[in-house]
Amino acid sequence: MKKVKDIFLAVFGVSSTEFSGFRLLVITLIICSLGVALADYLSKSPYANFEQDSRMLDSLLVIMEEYERADVINVESIKLEKFDPNSVSEKKLLSYGFPTWLATRLVKYRTTGARFYKPKDLLKLYGFPEPLFATIKDYIEIKPIAKPKRTEKVYVVVQPRKKYKKAIKVLPVFDINEADTSMLKTISGIGSKLSVRIIEYRTSLGGFIHNNQLYQVYGLDSLVIKKINNVTVISPNYEPQKIDINMATKSQLAGHPYINWTEAKLIIAYRNQHGSYMDTEDLLKVYSIDKDWVKNAAPYLSF
What we know:
Layout: H1 2-12, H2 16-42, H3 50-71, H4 90-96, H5 100-111, H6 130-136, E1 174-175, H7 181-184, H8 192-205, H9 222-231, E2 232-233, E3 243-244, H10 250-254, H11 261-274, H12 280-283, H13 291-297, E4 301-302
Parallel strand pairs: 1-2, 3-4
Helix pairs in contact: 4-5
């Protein structure tokens, strides 16, 4: 390699640095040539769709020729009369001899809110043939836009409205233990859900015996309860539905709002050990039951 370098330097009169650059260039060219040859050799799927592409191009050519023939308009067949392009119908344009695509395009152009102000505005339509325009331009008659009539302002004197006292709606008084959902919904603040909830609680309780029991209904606030108490009464002779404490099962006792499962089990256990309850005093002998419990639950128990 050194002899080649010496000969190269002597013949061409280049420096050592220039020779090194030339050598690198030659090596790069050789590598690139080998790479291209190798890629061509390893290619297993050379492009072979030339025939298919040729058929596709022929089809596109036919389509373009047909499109060009469709755009050709025989202006001699056009039969015209004076018309306004801002109001003429598509059917009328077709009767004049306009091709379908052009008549449709003109009408669609108007539907966008556009307007023709002078005959040359027709050339704004995409693809409008100039020979056709030269034929029809003398028949185009654009009517001016009618200006709206000026109206005088009319002033209306509005008399002040008289103030009327709002009538107070008086609701009928009804028994809370006999009311249905429709009656409860006449009270402001009570809808379908609350009316159903009041009746369900009343049923599980056995009936209301005093107004304060409404506070135990979930979702009722004090303002609504006050409105209920203003229009409802509880009959002084009302007897609530009672549970026979000596015959009731555990689930029957625990189904009452004032008796929980633990108390129901203790009541039945004491009854099984000591016999039937004679009065409320016997209930006080049951563990966890006190006078407050008896005061609330006793009206709903029978012995």
